[in-house]
Every structure is written in C-alpha cells, then in structure tokens.
C-alpha cells in the first residue's frame, strides 16, 4: 500500500468509526429476563454461540444466562467496552463492513459467522483481533463455568470442602 492509499484508508476509517461512535452505544435497557444483555445483543449472541461452541452440548439459552451474569459482574469500564463491542457488531452501519454479515445476525448462516470470526482472528488490525479474543473468552467462560460442561472435558468439578 502506498502512502497516499494509506492516508485515504486512514481518513475513511476515521470517518467511518466516528459515524459509528455517534450512532452506537445504545442506551437501551436490559432485555426481559436479563440483567444487562439488551434486545439488540441477543441476535448477535444467538448466532455466535452455536458456532463458537459447536461440538458441545451447550444450549443457547443456558449460555446466554451465564453470559448475562458474567457481564453483569464486570467493572463499569469493562461493561462499557463490552457493550461497545456488541454495538459495533449489531449496528447495520458497522456490522456489514466490519464483519461481512450484511443482513441481520438472525439470518446469518453458520458459514457467514465462521467467516466473520476467521476474518477478525487473522485481521491485520489489533483492535479486531482483540474483539475476536474477547468474544471467544466471554462465550467460552459462560459455557465452561457450568457443571454440565465439565464432564465432557474431564473436569470432575471443584473439590468438596
């Protein structure tokens, strides 16, 4: 990439992210039955969970419930960052260009979700790689904290005291 192209890309990215920040960070309250997960977060997470936790016995509802309690326990600063990540992934203006999923998450195929995850995992942008790692850590933590996940990985559970 030549210097001129890099400057154009940087300017375009700045404008794009600036627009997204003005639109994003929804003030929406928690969805019914959840402490902090919002209605706008649910389609994204419902699309990610079966792909990230493929091969496990994880149910979407169970993982969402665990994830909600984990996210609710985050510090205010970490909760804000997590919500910003969910907003960027949920807003149509940012979802398409950043994820390659141009329609709603509810209509995304598992192949599209896998392609998005791979795109972020291998991105040259550190911010996207960190977003990928954060999503995976949140979902894996939400599932593997549950006793029903322990047997499949050979963990007998915490010692009885």
Distance between the termini: 61 Å
* Beta-strand content estimate: under 5%
Unreliable residue runs: none
- The count of strands amounts to 0
- How many helices? The count is 8
Spell out the helices and strands N to C: HHHHHHHH
Rg (C-alpha, Å): 17 Å
**Biggest sheet descriptor:** none
Could you tell me the mean pLDDT? 87
Shape: globular
Strand-pairing-aware structural class: mainly alpha
The amount of helix comes to: 55-70%
How many domain units? 1
Protein name: Twin-arginine translocation pathway signal protein
Organism: Pseudomonas fakonensis
Task: Explain what the structure shows.
It is a single chain. The chain has 161 residues and is mainly α. The chain has one domain. It is 65% helix and 0% strand. It contains eight helices and no strands. The protein has helices spanning 3-23, 41-52, 60-72, 76-90, 92-99, 110-121, 126-144, 147-150. Helix 3 packs across helix 7. It is globular and about 65 Å long.
List the defining traits of the structure above.
161 residues, globular, mainly alpha
Give the secondary structure arrangement, pairings included.
Elements: H1 3-23, H2 41-52, H3 60-72, H4 76-90, H5 92-99, H6 110-121, H7 126-144, H8 147-150
TL;DR?
With 161 residues, the chain is mainly α.
